[in-house]
Amino acid sequence: MTSGATTEYDVVVVGAGFAGVYMLHRAKQAGFTAHLYEAGDGPGGTWYWNRYPGARCDFESLDYSYSFDDELQQEWNWPERYSGQAAILEYIEHVTDRFGLRGDMTFGTRVAGASFDEGTDRWLVEGEGGPLAAARWLVMATGSLSSPRFPDIPGIDSFQGRTFHTGAWPDEPVDFTDRRVAVIGTGSSGVQVSVEIAKQAEHLYVLQRTPSFIVPALHEPLNPDTLATEKAGYARRRELARHSPLGVDFATRPEPAMALSAEERTAEFERRWPVGGAALLLAFPDLLADEAANQALADYLKGKIRDTVQDEQTAALLTAMDYPVGARRLVVGPGFHAMFNEPHVDLVDVRSAAITEFQPSGIETEDALYEVDDVVFATGYDAITGALLAMDIRGREGEPLRDHWAAGPLTYLGLQAAGFPNLFFINGPQSPSVFSNMVHSLEQHVQFIGSLLETARAREATTVEATADAESAWVQHVFDVASPTLFMKTASWYMGANVPGKPRVFMPYVAGVPAYRATCDKVVENDYEGFDFN
User: Fold this and answer.
1) Does residue 493 have a pLDDT over 80?
2) Residue 46 CA: distances (Å) to CA of 39, 113, 167, 458, 480
3) Which residues 6+ apart lie within 8 Å of 53 measured at CB?
4) What whole-number distance in Å separates Cα of residue 164 and Cα of residue 170?
5) Are 180 and 201 in contact, with CB atoms under 8 Å apart?
């Protein structure tokens, strides 16, 4: 591919979710020529693809939204405290049109790869049908949870019923009325979709290998008075978020959990339980570092399950967690445990009796055949790196990113990889990303990248590249931060354990949003320390 065969831009952005939309706006604001490519037929990112019944964000909408424009956040009225997929998609579409971005987007175009041309210091971007564009700067806004994966189970193609994946749901509504349905997976999407399908299905089988810790969420409408009050205090809300580990203010108590009596700990958990969301996980500063403190929260959450589920055997399966709270993603959603009190809903334990194969009529495990009309795969994603490595990205001397990351991702600040100049990742591996309010974190990344590109332009630099030393030091720092935490005590998608053959490397940065921002600010203050401008 040659740059002469394509349109040339200053900036090409890949992906039209929250990150890509804002990155395109920021680039245009700075006077760069910019264009965005998106595989879907419209903006929205994960909220375009994840249209399954019950899809909903696990952070409050007042936080899971842009803060870069005060007029935008004052004029937009969220319908619910935790808004659903349709409302979030409508919001992203509104932002796209409000800032006049749609004309600089090409939809229905999947980027297949990109190679760095060392003769022109430009990225040559390829689509599935051939060359797309050449750009000085290439920004990957491909999402951390955007590469759905199906389980490797024999006979899937022989199943004669309907199959769906929560991460690639049809545009049109799916009716499960009077049908026998199996949902495979009990992570966030499995929990959410099961509750909604149970309202329609003749029978629902929920196939669980590993139970999730689940907390409630107040899916209450946001009436005009509440919205007015929240908007009046928006500046303070956003500022408090900047100083919170997750990018949302949960008012963590200063004292360690184990410094209190059992009664005092339980009282604090009870106070936070109705609030829902991740407030419980940040009740005390040591819940993700101290095993005894974490066990106290685990016992509390398991007690809530036993109080809800009437059948003792089902309750035992739903409380059979063998990992610390938070080491796997905490699931936010109401109604899941109570659903099992309905006579037409069954929990199937596929840890003790694994799925062996699909039959034309259903799913066969080691001890039974479950005949169903529909199967819903809530089996997750090749998280954080999956979408990036699905593309053929080649840096200096043609080095594939897949080779550079063969033993796990290597980045500087989660933003760049050494040997891949002018290529940036938003919410990439080794940044707070999935262990934070993603919109808060991506805004910080977009602002950092935007300012860096403006600096490069002012210096007449044609390349900006993370040094190998900076990359190596950052990777070690990310590991050192995670090592003393309880995250390292379980195999999870945070470290790629859900994908056979994927290197087991802990990928998010867990020191918290404030610590990460302080590091990035120091990098800028030290003349972009760790980046070479040429």
Assistant:
1) no
2) 12, 20, 8, 35, 31
3) 173, 174, 192, 193, 196, 197
4) 8
5) yes
Mean pLDDT (whole number) for 271-282 = 88
CA 147/CA 383 separation, integer angstroms: 7
Contact 408, 505 (CB under 8 A): yes
pLDDT at 1: 35
The CA distance from 128 to 201, in Å, is: 39
What would the DSSP string read from start to end of 14-76? E--SHHHHHHHHHHHHTT--EEEE-SSSSS-THHHH---TT-B-SS-TTTSS--S-HHHHHH-
**Alpha carbon 529 to chain centroid, angstroms:** 28
Q: Tell me, what amino acid is at 298?
A: A
Cα separation, 201 vs 177, whole angstroms: 5
Whole-number Å distance between alpha carbons of 167 and 145: 9
End-to-end CA separation in angstroms for the chain: 24
Beta bridge partners of 77: none
The pLDDT tens digits for 100-118 are: 999 999 999 999 999 999 9
Is the CB of residue 180 less than 8 Å from the CB of residue 374? yes
d(CA 136, CA 526): 24
- Sign (positive or negative) of CA dihedral 216, 219, 225, 231: positive
DSSP string covering 336-401: HHHHTTSTTEEEEETTTS-EEEEETTEEEESS-EEE-SEEEE---B-TTTHHHHTSEEE-GGG-BH
Q: What is the pLDDT of residues 464-484, one digit of tens each?
A: 999 999 999 999 999 999 999
Rounded to whole angstroms, how far apart are CA atoms 36 and 28? 11
Q: What is the pLDDT of residues 226-268, one digit of tens each?
A: 999 999 999 999 999 999 999 999 889 999 999 999 999 999 9
8 A C-beta contact, residue 220 and residue 227: no
Residue 216 sits at the vertex; the CA angle it makes with 86 and 242, to the nearest 5 degrees, is 75
Alpha-carbon separation of residue 430 from 20, 283, 405 (angstroms): 19, 25, 13
Helix (H) / strand (E) element for 404: namely helix 401-404
Write the CA distances from 341 to 35, 205, 311, integer angstroms: 51, 13, 7
* Residue listed under structure tokens 């009077």: 178
Other C-beta atoms lying within 10 Å of the C-beta of residue 468: 13
- Alpha carbon of 22 to those of 89, 142, 438: distances in Å? 14, 13, 13
